[in-house]
Amino acid sequence: MTPLLTVRDLSKTYGGRIGCADVSFDLYPGEVLGIVGESGSGKSTLLNCLAGQLVPDGGQVVFDTRADGPRDTLIMSEPERRMLARTDWAFVHQNARDGLRMGVSAGGNVGERLMAVGARNYGDIRSAAIDWLGRVEITEDRVDDRPTAFSGGMQQRLQIARNLVTGPRLVFMDEPTGGLDVSVQARLLDLLRGLVRDMGLSAIIVTHDLAVVRLLADRLMVMKSGQVIEQGLTDQVLDDPQAPYTQLLVSSVLQV
Amino acid sequence: MSQEYNFAYLDEQTKRMIRRAILKGLAIPGYQVPFASREMPMPYGWGTGGVQVTAACLTPADTLKVIDQGADDTTNAVSIRKFFERTAGVATTESTRDATVIQTRHRIPEEPLTEDQILVYQVPIPEPLRFLEPRETETRVMHALEDYGLMHVKLYEDIARNGEIATAYAYPVKVEERYVMDPSPIPKFDNPRLESAAIQLFGAGREQRIYALPPYTQVVSLDFEDHPFNPSKADHPCALCGADHTYLDEVITDDQGGRMFVCSDTDYCSRRQADGHRGDMAPPVLEALS
Fold this sequence. Notes:
Distance between the termini of chain A: 41 Å
Order of helices and strands of chain B: HEHEHEEEHHEEEEEEEH
Distance between the termini of chain B: 38 Å
Oligomer: heterodimer
Strand order of the largest sheet of chain B: 1-9-8-5-4-2-3
């Protein structure tokens, strides 16, 4: 099977400081990869390099495109990369405000990606928006409300709907449950798990919350100081951590 | 002609710089060309961009017409016409047919333009994406990459809120299937007439941008399949000349709810009246004069 995403020796430095160094992994279709690590370990740098939002200093990010097969996204032209970013990729920000247009109604937010790829039928766009709002448990009567009128959890769900409406194959998530209270987190995780399984999505989830990866991720990568220090199946890494830092990380979680 | 000014106020090097921007704009229809806009002896918002473009286009043989909201006799039109009478000494006219250069604000003349004419627009905000994406660096990238999904988000929002596309002026258009352009605040009624035989130049003084439409350029108003573009107008004939195909102004005539609809293009309306067309509220024709 061709990996959906193949990353080789990806490095990014900020001047003399290391953002992430020599990261390599394969991501297969339908697989969810968790990236954990403490603050400043290079998780977000890595994610932004993968999603084309930061330019890495070296390495390869090969994505299996629908039309042309595996292609290195780092040497793609900017229009091609943008096209990919609004069709086959999705990016869920930690803060929903970064990923939403706060001055535009919920329906407009969901419809934007459809219109960006050429949808020009108002009725179709609107029914797709309502359908997707339903899937993320936002009722139809909120379709014309702006995200400013939504709670934090609803904004995050709206951001997910907005990203998934074009049926992407790869979703990047940066702390999708950060800043939400635990009951809302649980519902959001439930929803994400359902969507990932139903749509057969591949996802890369950056988080520092081990519970999130335990629930969602098939495989886990542990980062420290820009290096990947351990990777493997999620349960294996969490239940039998090998690296000293992973052992520390796992034992730091408070057991209730 | 008053000798204190160089012809048409601006110095020759400045006019040359503006002409280069105009030529580039004509070569890439709809693309906003930056230019070094000068301070003009009038406030921003009064047509400093249009005036600079007009100054760069004028020759001593030209005849200038200036339109403000369709009319020739409002403050803006009168002062810009006087400005060029004084600084360029060119002939001026109120007749669309006789003019070779027409500077306009908010309207395209009703009379079809010819290949011998130049229409200069005064543009307050040249960037159609301005209120959707505040970063100028980003809007430039969006133009470069033809990333125009956001423009339709605005139209979507219009329909979601008002049941129809409520944008009535500065209605966005796509030029030659490439650049999305703000046609300046003309009513959307005028949009179909952007496809014209005349050269159309757009000058934004404060924003320092010039863009252009060469003759017979394809200009398509953006819309949805199920909400097609509709160049709406008031559903009345002109009260003075009886025309039912022109853009109308609503004029309040008293405080009892009395109103009349008249052509906003004053030159076109008076020409029709002179040709014998009569509306409901037209003054009676005096037998002695006719």
